[in-house]
Design brief:
- This protein is an alpha+beta fold.
- The protein has three helices and three strands.
- A three-stranded antiparallel β-sheet has the order 1-3-2.
- Helix 1 packs across helix 3.
- About 15% of the residues are buried.
- The N terminus and C terminus are likely disordered.
């Protein structure tokens, strides 16, 4: 029996991610990875890309992570934490030393 004969460890991954996001509405990629430890980062990114193509999520790039936003009613303008005009930053963003 080969490894491929058994069930995939991350079967239904896009649905599992959707369920997490339905509860939390927005999560950082690293938080999703911690909640789904049986999946590799590549598997997670592949599933996120499928969800993004289906317009079920939006990905917001941060300096050290990605924020995953659940789009309840289809595409929307992503909500960013902090106001760059006021010099506010999201807790997930960190400034790089100059």
């Amino acid at each position: 029996m080969s490894v491929r004969d058994g069930p995939e460890p991350c079967a239904g991954l896009a649905d599992r991610i959707s369920a997490l996001l339905h509860q939390h509405r927005r999560l950082m990629f690293l938080d999703i990875a911690r909640k789904l430890p049986d999946c590799t980062w590549k598997m997670l990114f592949d599933a996120l890309m499928r969800l993004r193509e289906q317009r079920r999520i939006e990905l917001v790039t941060h300096q050290w992570d990605y924020e995953v936003l659940y789009l309840v009613d289809g595409p929307a303008t992503p909500v960013h934490c902090g106001s760059p005009e006021l010099g506010e930053r999201c807790e997930h963003e960190q400034r790089m030393p100059v």
